[in-house]
């Protein structure tokens, strides 16, 4: 019979032979009080699906020095590398990127492969419609979550096929989902994805819903990438800034001796994409060719800049809720040249980002840009004009292609979830504490 001091909470008996140290409130080797004691399970190998994949992380890789290291609860070796997949579909709503990432424990090593599947026009329109109040929203959202997850599964399967890998080779995948509502002031942010379906279709542990835990801790739930940017792009001797220009633009400031911080600067490509679709029935301005034919309209630019969001101090985040296409249309006189409008929108994106960089990271002399906006020479030129003392490059200069950065970040977040490493940056989101982000579903 077990000794008296082996009795846990609520009449449960802890196995006296267990070698792991677990919190008293959550004994892992526990039996009901009336159950017949049996041999301790700890020394034996658990079936594969029951193994808790939560090895102890190397503390030096935690983005904040006060992140506690959780107890190791399995035998995974940190000397072997693991593969993860990150899936990202951003506010541009053009499709889903999947990136295969190689990790050593919780240390990012490389992005080994990339695959992309575009959204159909019908899927994008259905997602856009769900961002506004309407009828039968719950039913439509669940159907769209399933459709998205089937698309996510296809892009994962394409990636595995191209690399001649099986699902068993992947430790976990991190799926951002598709944002349709972001309302941290009301305590929620909705990213559509059906994690059980995704795990079922891929045969891989699926981790998602990364923003909710940060919001529960009082944060904005965004941006989540500054901790990843610091882990991959920071330097020990200088402050760097990373600007992601997706549908919404966000900045990460990476000091050499302090945790990273960041926030959303405002619209990235979102308004320009909507204008290009409206005028030319094209999804985006390829290589900025149409914007290059226009000129900046100062009065329109000033009207675009006249929004309370740009005067707010961080932490802050935004989305289509504030900067939908109507935001642009309400500020037009009606007689503007379409090319001039597009050029002004490029200046708008650059000015809001540059102003925040000057305000929050005046000492930074290096700016690394990622996201779709890096392929627009007009935006890049406008940034250079507004930040003459900064060296501006794509993140490719640091070894990670700009179109892969965000998806790679969610692979890294999945690795943090597996290893119970807090991965939200409270300095960026405003959360009360560092949190382990995400919810997972095993295949």
From TrEMBL:
Class in the EC hierarchy, top level = transferase
Q: Which CDD domains match?
A: ASKHA_NBD_ANMK
Listed A to Z, the keywords are:
Kinase, Transferase
**Does Zinc count among this protein's keywords?**
no
Q: What is its EC number?
A: 2.7.1.-
Q: In its keyword annotation, does this UniProt entry include Transferase? A: yes
> Which segments does the entry list as coiled coil?
none
Q: Name one GO molecular function term.
A: ATP binding
A GO BP annotation: peptidoglycan turnover
Segments spanning the bilayer are none
Q: Read off the NCBIfam families from this record.
A: PRK09585.1-3 (NF007139)
Extract the HAMAP family matched here.
AnhMurNAc_kinase
- Which PANTHER family did the record assign? ANHYDRO-N-ACETYLMURAMIC ACID KINASE (PTHR30605:SF0)
Q: By what name is this protein known?
A: Anhydro-N-acetylmuramic acid kinase
Species in which this protein is naturally found = Neisseria bacilliformis ATCC BAA-1200
Q: Which gene encodes it?
A: anmK
